[in-house]
Prior knowledge:
Helix content: 25-40%
Radius of gyration: 28 Å
Structural class: alpha+beta
Number of strands: 7
Number of helices: 1
Strand content: 35-45%
Shape: rod-shaped
Oligomer: single chain
Amino acid sequence: MMNQRGFTLVEVLVVIVILGLFLPVAYSLISYTMDGQRQVIAENEVQIEARRIMEYMTEKMRDDARWVGESDSNMKLVKNETVWLIYEKEGTLGNMRLPGANGRVLSQSIETFIVTESDSSTQVKLEITKPRASIVLESTIHYSRFVNEVSE
């Protein structure tokens, strides 16, 4: 007898059957993991966008800037005639941008933006919605904490 090398047909078929059982499970696991990763990335991006807007707005409001505008769909954050932020709502979504002809757009996915002012504080609600994620941030800015009182 001659020494034969190679695989028999039965061995090859067994390997194909085993791979046929293993590969769909592996593909499903990888696909599920990647979908989860995409969801987390989308949520992080929306959260970063909302926090960036809220932090900038809060900083300017603590420095005595106020929201002015004709309606809830067109407002500007202003201090001493200097515009710091512009909110415009067209259709169902609003956008927040910095002023100027080339003003950087901070968000184009604002679902809800509500500013409620009183004498000593302002409440702000910001909701950003994108296809895979949504976030709602609320903040109350108390102006009396930032006013320096001079005693005589």
